[in-house]
Amino acid sequence: MKRRNTAAAAVIACLLMMTGCWDRKEVKDLAIVTASGLDLNKDGTLTQSVQIVIPTPMQSSGSSSDAKSFFVIAAEGKTLADSRQRLQEKIHLKLYYSHRRVIIIGERMARHGLESVFDSFHREMDMRMRNMVFVAKGAAAESLLNYPVALEAIPADQFKNLHKQPAGRATTIMNFDATAATEGIEPTMGAFEVIQKQASGPSASSTGAEPHIKLYGVGVFKELKLLGFFNDEETRAMNWATKNMAGSFLTVYVPQGNGNVSVQILKSKHGFHPLVKGNRITMGVSVQSECELIENGTKLDFSEPANVKLLNALLSSQLTQSIAATVKKSQRLYKADVFGFGRSVHAAYPSEWKRLSAAWANVYPEVEVTVRAKTSVIGTGYVKLPLHRKETKGDVE
Amino acid sequence: MRFRKHLFHGMVSGPDPDVTGIPLEPNISKNERMLKSVFEACSDVVIHSASTPGQIDMLAIYIAGLPDTKHLDELIFNQFASRSRDLDKPDGMERAVQASFIPVSMTKKVAFLSEAVDSILRGDVVFLFDGVDYGHAVSVQGTERRAIEEPASEPVIRGPREGFVECLQINTGLLRVRLRSASLKIETLSIGTLSQTEIAIAYIKDIAKDELLHDVRHRLRRIRIDGVLESGYIEELITDTPYSPFPQIQNTERPDVVIGSLLEGKVAVITDGSPIALVLPMTFWTGLQASEDYYERSITATPIRWLRILFTSVSLFLPSLYVSLVSYDHPALPTSLLLSIASSQRMSPFPAIIETLLMEITFEALREAGLRLPKGVGSAVTIVGGIVIGQAAVQAGFISAPVVIVVATTGIASFIIPRYNFGLAFRLLRFPLLLLAGFMGFFGLMIGIIGILIHLASLRSFGTPYLYPLAPLSMDGLKDVFIRKAWFGMNLRPRTAAEQNGLRIPPGQRPDSGDRGD
Amino acid sequence: MKTEKLTQWQFVIMISISVLGTEIFNIAAFPAQFAGQDAWISVLIAPITSFWCIAVCTALARRYPDMTIIEYSRSILGSWVSTLVEAYYLCFLFVYATVISKALADLIAMISHQLTPHAIILLMLLAVCGTAAWCGIGVIGRCGEIIFPIMIVIATMILLISIRDWNVTYLQPVAEKGLPSILRGASVPSGWLGETVLIAFLIPFLNQPGQARKASYYSTLIITVFMLKTVLICTLAEGPLVTKFPFPYAALIRYISLGDMLERLDPVFFPIWVSVGFIKLATFLFVACLCVSRISRVKNQRTITLPVVLLVFAGTTGIMKDAPGMDAILQFYVYTFPVASFVAANAIPTVLLVVDWTYSRRRALHEA
């Protein structure tokens, strides 16, 4: 009996020695994908492109700065899964998607509709909901992946980090899905465009201008189809109404002082106040922010309360106008509730919402929106007046 | 194939049974003949016959080299000679004998041959007189023993530098010096039929639990062995689970550690011939405690304890963690780290698990080799082995650099475990965990950890669960596990001690608590 | 061999983990299916079954000290009727042990080991849990004492890291769907909380059986707090997607990130949760062996462990073979499980108590 037990134990131990087992993936056999792009071709097939990083040891990062640290391969297929299989045919290493951060969708594909693509995303095992999705405006996603990036070890991070600004919106797939699944709000996706940069200095390549990627605001979606874009000004306005904009800047022209003034936002609060009376819906959008003066191009002294009041009024009216303009664009042109007005109606008037929700797309353009923005300048930076000016009587007043 | 199982029913080889039970004779030449036949072919036994001035024959038997012959000659023979004038009186012999032996501290009467033989073997001198049917065994031991010096295996920065030596009496003396109380009880017994090694059980009455003492005595008494050379023999024969990698009996070479444990209700077993004392019961957390924790202030000792616990886990888990992260669970690594590892692994021909296994085995071999080298060369070898070979292997492309880092860190971390036998457990267990991690990644590692946890939870050391005081949870016991509460806070003894004497430091002793006496 | 006894704290931990072990992954999905964003309110209502079960079982245990439910059902109902009761519990325990092992193995396979055959994962899991069940309840209790603080630390870490992704609007409007949906949503969590019927088997192993009621109430409290926390953070982070994921908490763990370093930590967190599931499985295996040994009146429970484990392993390969993947298990949870659990935890003990009370009254009247 004892001998049988030991024999059994020995067999099991040998099994454990079989360390060439099923799920082991050696790192040197992997091609680490950090970004993918999806494009729709004219014949209805998909092109999937992936950006693969070339591993370089950390210490030798300074040596070769002009050698590209990544490469891109692309393949076509009928569906996402089909193109993925064909992609694997082009490279001997196993494509490894768990480190992917960014998915870029070409404009044509976005306008066509993302239903099937998102369906595939959710079923994939190595899809991480934290991946960010972006739209490529006026360009193919594949081309976007190809552009060289300065000062970034992992090129895909540039996409992610570009949109983490007030003028952009970095949506993860989870957020996009949640927004799409919520009634009363339509999702948006950050967008990029390609612009030609003028050659600067002798180190530029001799062929002339180098194209590079620039943030373009957001793309507005409805039922997973791209309707259009908000440029960066409109995106900023949209973000003012929906997010905390601390850290961003506002610039206004002050006619009394004949110059431009810029302020930096320290705190901002936003809110929606819906009012439903029968069939009439009014939405009050309120934005309150506190900011600090950072650049004064006028001769006015902003430590005077009167001047500050003037500046506040100007800032507030500028903000109000830009938000109102964006709301109007979303209502008239896109008929898509990107702000989430419907959601706030739902929260405030649940019983009313039951009858409004079905036709919200039609009700939304009829909503009267009043924007109230209040900006107050609470500081003037390090100094009260610029240090280089000569003191003249006019300034002190 | 018979494995000589028939021999299992025999007797443990021991001394000649003919010696027991035979009394000494009044006739001295008969005694001499008996003793000569027992000690046949033992050329180091000296049988010195003399006759006193009173014409009475005297025999002194001893083993050359064991007693102090100078003492013997000067004090005893000369003393005896000077008292010889009393010998013709009827009890003159007795009185002369008693008087001569006053300078000697340990004397006893032997009436049986076996007792005489025992005493001679222990290094005493046995005096036999004609006409008297008993002898006197006089203990004048004078062999050269090792002096008390700092224990090599448990050095401290702060704390006493005395360590046990091989002589049992000196060791128990070191204990007595520190605990001057009659409650410190020391019981001796002999184990080993041929070696007759003396074992001392030391405990503090009313602090050590009665069941524990009973258990210890019972286990020691049932040992049947031919020779006991080191306390390790005793340890293996009385331990609860001999096949567990974790020791259930603590070894120490320091008397202050022993006394500290006795004050907590533990029992110490000291073996003659070995400087290592056994302290039982032992818990898992004892293995992670060093004596310096108690001598330094608690606020500095506690973070060092945390460091120790952290690095103990590192020494156990780091290689397996590395293998599972690199072979199975790549998502968990930050991308830049993964890329770095990928580029360095590119060169090496082996998969990560094989690399790590190879390097771990090499490191263990280096460690073992380092123990046997003479002192001067030892450190050079570790430097050569660790740095140069590792570096050369990386540059030749055999091994990737992260593996060398992992193995080196693990090696350093394993030196941080204060108790050597406890550290051996971790060194051993690293390998199955490594194999499991190579087999199933983090899940395999987790299964291994759970397996070790089950084993630890089922282990008991003389009745105390091994993971006490963490499981079963005892809040006041926790004062000594993750933190070292200052001495004025450690009011109660742990549950290993008997209940009625639970208080050791009354509360309110904090120095700055206001009552300074001025 | 002296049976080991559990201390109070060990008992609390074991009962808590026996419920939390596997349910923590998919707890958020089920109430949300019916109650939407008010799933957290459903979770607050769910402990009612547990309190009821504890009250009844401790009352029965007080009347019949040192006996498990198998034994006192025999003495209350007589051998014939109680065979039905015993068979029911046996079935319940076996099926549930099988479902737990399959759920755990499927989870691990889905997250990080897609290609490994499920049998290997199941074997490793059952080997470890079977060893723990073989070693006895004291060992499981002590392991639980070590694992419980680790579980709390990890859960708190996940909570803190996920704060970044919270969006309070997902909780609004509150109580929109009305009370009926909330109550329906509470059905599945209450089924889970009904697993506290394990105390009916474990009270004889307590070293202070009189304190069982208080200890069990503590467990229910801990379980409810954990469930509430899980449901809340899943709803706050995922909003309407909660119902779409089979494992919302798992999806949350895959989603959270702290800077660039602590991302994608699911291969690390899952096995830690598996260790919690291991305690649950070990407890269930132990109780299943206990049940079998009491029914068949075998004195030494250890010898039964191996057959029970093998049976469970065979069960996992056979169970739910027709329906693929996790769908069958999810169906089981939503429809079969609450009813089965209610019967085991509430209906049967209440019947036992009532019958016992009537008989004892009748006996008292007789003697009077």
Automatic annotation (TrEMBL), chain A:
Cellular compartments annotated: Membrane
Transmembrane segments: none
Keyword Membrane tagged: yes
Primary residence: membrane
UniProt keyword terms in alphabetical order: Germination, Lipoprotein, Membrane, Palmitate, Signal
InterPro entries on file: GerAC_N, Spore_GerAC-like, Spore_GerAC-like_C, Spore_GerAC_C_sf
Annotated Pfam families: Spore_GerAC, Spore_GerAC_N
Record's bilayer topology term: Lipid-anchor
Domain Spore germination GerAC-like C-terminal: 217-381
Residues of the Spore germination protein N-terminal domain: 23-190
Family that this chain belongs to: Belongs to the GerABKC lipoprotein family.
Name this polypeptide is given: Ger(X)C family spore germination protein
Species this chain originates from: Paenibacillus glycinis
From TrEMBL, chain C:
Family: Belongs to the amino acid-polyamine-organocation (APC) superfamily. Spore germination protein (SGP) (TC 2.A.3.9) family.
Stored Pfam families: Spore_permease
Membrane topology designation: Multi-pass membrane protein
Transmembrane parts of this sequence: 12-34, 40-64, 76-99, 119-139, 146-166, 186-206, 218-239, 268-292, 304-320, 332-355
Cell location: Membrane
Entry keyword Disulfide bond: no
Primary localization: membrane
Stated name of the protein: Endospore germination permease
Superkingdom in the source lineage: Bacteria
Keywords: Germination, Membrane, Transmembrane, Transmembrane helix, Transport
UniProt entry tagged with the keyword Transport: yes
Organism lineage: Bacteria, Bacillati, Bacillota, Bacilli, Bacillales
